[in-house]
Amino acid sequence: MPKLALTIAGSEATGGAGAQADLKTFQEQGVYGMIALTCIVSFDPAHGWGHRFVPVDKQVIDDQIDAITGAYGPERLDTVKIGMLGTPDTISVVAKNLRDRRFTNVVLDPVLICKGQEPGAALDTDNALKAEILPLATVVTPNHFEAIQLSGVEDITSEEDLVNAAKLIFDRFGATVVAKGGVRIEGADAVDVFYDGKTLEILRAPKVGEVAVSGAGCTLAAAIAAQLAKGHSELDAVRNAKEFVTKAIIERVASNAPFEAVWQGA
Ligand code: PXL
Hints:
The chain is 42% helix and 21% strand. Helix 2 runs parallel beside helix 3, helix 3 packs parallel to helix 4 and helix 5 crosses helix 6 (159-173). It is of the alpha/beta class. It starts with a strand and ends in a 16-residue tail after the last helix. Strands 3-2-1-4-5-6-7-8-9 form a 9-stranded mixed beta sheet, sandwiched between helices. The structure holds 3-hydroxy-5-(hydroxymethyl)-2-methylisonicotinaldehyde. Residues 9-12, 17-18, 41, 83-84, 111, 217-218 line the site of 3-hydroxy-5-(hydroxymethyl)-2-methylisonicotinaldehyde.
C-alpha cells in the first residue's frame, strides 16, 4: 500500500507548475497523491504570458479537504504540501483546516507574488500567509525573493547572505527552512540552505543554465513532502528532493511560453 500525500495548491494549466507539478512528483516518488485546488492560473499567450487568476470558492476548498481527510483519516494522511493559495479568504480556510486536522508534516512553498494579481490584493495575501500559514508550517521552502521578504534582509547576493536569511526565517517562524538560491546567487552551483535550528547544511548541484525553470520550486517542495510521507528525516528528504528536482531541470521541456518547465519523469 502506498504512502499518501495531499497538495493544497493552484492549477497552472500548462502543466509546468502548481498542483500538476505536485501530483506528477508524488507519482514519480511512489506516493499516492491528492489535490485540494485553491485557484486556477491560465497564462495569457496574447499578453506576454501574464497570469490570469481565478480563486476557488472557499467553501469548495473546505469541501475538498473534507472529502480527502474523510476518505483517509489522520492515521494514514499525515503529510500536506501547500503551494499557491491566492487570496486572504483561501488562506483563512486552509489555515482553519491545518489547525483542525493536525498534519505531522506541513511543507509550505510560500508562493508570495503571482503576476496578474493587483498589488494591493497581493500585499494582503502575503500578510495573511505570514500571519496564518507560516506559523503552522513544519518546513518552508522560500526562493530568493521570498527569503528576502520573510527574513527582512535588504538583499541576498552570497551564500553567507542566504545562510543568514535562513536562520532569521527559522527564528521568526520556527519551521525548518530550505532557502533556495537557485540561479540568483553567483557561482557555478545552485545552492540551497537547510536549517532546522540545529543542523545547517549547504546543498549544492551544478547550475543547469542561468535561467529559472517553471515548476522547480513546486517540484522540490512536493518531493520533500513525498519523502517525508515515506518516513525519511527532514534532512534526507531535502537531499533526495534536491537530487530529484535537479534531474527534472536537466530534462526540462520547452514550449511556446518564454520559460521551460521541469520534467519529473526524467
Ligand atoms: O511556481 C509558482 C506557481 C505555483 N502555483 C501556481 C502557479 C505558479 C506560477 O506560475 O501558476 C498555480
